[in-house]
Amino acid sequence: MERPRDLEKALRSPARCVEARLDPYRGELAPVVDLLGELARSKTLIVTVRSPAEGGHFKGSEEERLSVYLKALDAAPQYVDVELAAKIREDVVRAKGPAKAILSRHDFGGTPDLEILRGWVREAEEGGADVVKIATTARSWDDNFKVLSLVGRGGKPVVAFAMGPLGVMSRIFAPLMGAPFTYAALDAPAAPGQLSYGAMEAIYSSLGIYSNLSSLPDMRAALDAVDSALIHLLKLRLEICRDIGRLKKSLGLSVYDDSREAEVLKRAGDFKQLFDLVVQMCKAVQIVVPT
Fold first, then answer.
1. What is the pLDDT of residue 4?
2. Active site includes 57?
3. What is the location of CATH 3.20.20.70 in the chain?
4. Does 267 carry a binding-site annotation?
5. Quick one: DSSP state of residue 195?
6. Is 76 known to sit in a ligand binding site?
7. Which of 18, 116, 173, 266 has its CA at 20 to 30 Å from residue 185's CA atom?
8. 37: number of Cβ within 10 Å
9. Does residue 97 have a pLDDT over 90?
10. Is 65 within any annotated ligand binding site?
């Protein structure tokens, strides 16, 4: 989360774990800390004040950044994330209280050799990490396998993935291989190659990770995840239909295609009534789309 309104959106979202990025915030932090406290009471909360050196937007000194961390810790988050190379790392780790420390390392230029990556993990573990986060940039498909090989191999839990378009698969597979969590966007992506929360839930739902549940809370959480996936796919369908409508208008074709509509509804089977509503929504989008 990078904008003030994102915290309120996160409170309403079905996401069970939220990262609050405080580095873009300006002005009084007290109202933000109150919102963070609400998040920490209802979800798993990670707070971070990312430095410009590792993709953040904080404008002040390291002493000022430490002050923001200390205020954020008043909200009792479950995790606090600080860069492994930060001068204030030891101060944040000492002040974290019951929160768990995520020591992170980001490489926006590429993915180093495996020995360097393993060295970062060891350094983080020795530096007081409860969780190690390694985020590199994929320049080849092999970079995905390189960073994923870090997951489950250290003495502490490791979150490892590659950023960028070529690294999407590592974001998806990291939790399936044992990482405690992965990163997605509730709204606009905050990092290269980041997928939306709905897109990630659509993938995980399709993989069957929400099957064979036994408790009511888990079942309800699974329903929330599937709902997020459905909303994502419905938005995607509307976007495609909008493009189809634009193309039809440019070609002088009619928006209505009775045979195509009948084919879609026939495929819907028991969901014909539901798909009829979806088709009508998509037709409406095609009608009003500008040329």
1. 62
2. no
3. 4-183
4. no
5. P
6. no
7. 116
8. 15
9. yes
10. no
> Of residues 43, 96, 133, 232, which has the active-site annotation?
133
- Quote the DSSP letter at residue 194: P
Q: How far is CA 49 from the centre of its chain?
A: 17
Please list the helix, strand and coil fractions of the chain in percent, rounded to the nearest 5, in that order.
55, 15, 35
Top-level CATH class of 4-183? alpha beta
246 annotated binding-site participant = no
Q: How many CB atoms lie within 10 A of CB 41?
A: 10
The catalytically annotated residue of 57, 71, 96, 106 is 106
Output the pTM of the full model: 0.86
In the chain, residues under CATH classification 1.20.59.10 are: 217-288
- Over residues 165-204, the pLDDT tens digits come to 999 999 999 999 999 999 999 877 777 789 999 999 999 9
CATH 3.20.20.370 fits 217-288, yes or no: no
User: In a 3-state reduction of DSSP, which class is residue 237?
Assistant: helix
Residue 266 structure tokens? 């026939």
| Gap between the Cα atoms of 242 and 226, Å rounded | 24
Q: What is the pLDDT of residue 224?
A: 92
Check whether 50 is labelled as a binding-site residue: yes
Examine the residue annotation and report whether 106 is marked as an active-site residue of this protein. yes
